[in-house]
Amino acid sequence: MVTIDEFCKKNGYTRNQYYYYLRKLRRKVIEDSGFVELPQVQSQATAVSEPDIIKKSDI
After folding, report:
1. I need a surface site. Which of 21, 28, 33, 39 has the fewest CB within 10 A?
2. What is the tens place of the pLDDT at every residue in 19-37?
3. Looking at the domain assignment, is residue 41 inside a domain?
4. All residues at 6 or more sequence positions from 10 whose CB lies less than 8 Å from its CB, including other chains
């Protein structure tokens, strides 16, 4: 893993520039994220059975 200082040195950025662009990117991601409308899915009906009832006298 590359440290921030190594990344900045390799790419010609100052540490302040790195954090400036990091903040800018994070804000952009937050703005772009949100709720997405999903298409309505029609479910297939499934058979529902009555629950088994066990009486004390059956035991």
Report:
1. 39
2. 999 999 999 988 777 777 8
3. no
4. 2
**Phi and psi (nearest 5°) for 49?**
-95, 155
The pLDDT value given to residue 35:
75
Cβ contact 54:44 at 8 Å: no
* Residue at 57: amino acid letter: S
Residue type, 39: P
- Residue at 51 is within a domain: no
Radius of gyration of the chain (CA): 29
CA 52 to chain centre: 40
Domain that holds residue 5: 1-32
pTM, 2 dp: 0.52
Would you say residue 9 lies in a domain?
yes
